[in-house]
Specification:
This protein has four helices and no strands. The chain is mainly α and 149 residues long. It has a domain of 97 residues. This is LysB family transcriptional regulator.
Length: 149
Amino acid sequence: MTRLAVTVLAVLLAALCLTGWRLGAVTGELGDAQRIIGTLSAGIESRDRTIARLNADAKASQKREATLRLQQGRASTGALNRELTIQRETDANPALRNWTAAALPADVIRLHGRPAFGNARDYLDWLSTRDKLPAAGKQPADAGRSGGG
C-alpha cells in the first residue's frame, strides 16, 4: 500500500509540477498579450487624437474658407458698385465720355506693347535694349518703332 501511496503521491507531484509549469507559461503568455494590448491601445489613442486634431483643423479651414468667401462676395459687390458709379459719372458728363472714347496716344500704346518671351534671358535682354522714353516735350528718335521687339 505504501508503494501505491508513493506512486499516487509521485503522480500528484508530477501533475502539480506540470500544472505549475503550465501556469508559468500561461502567465508569460498573459503578460505578452497585455503588453501587446497596451501597445495597440496606445496606437489607437494616438490615432484617435490625430483624427480629432484633423477634424478640428478641417472645421477651422471650413470657417476660414467661409469667411474668405464672404469677404470675396463683399469685395465683388464693392467693385461692381464702384464700376456702376464710374459708368454713371461717365455717362452723365459728355466731356468725360468723349475723353474715355478717344484713342490712347502712341507713346502710351508703345509702353503697353511687349513681345512674347521664351525664357528669362530674353526678357532681361529686352529690358536692357528697349527704347527709353524721350524727355518731356521732345519727340522720340524713331517715332515709327512700335516697342522694342
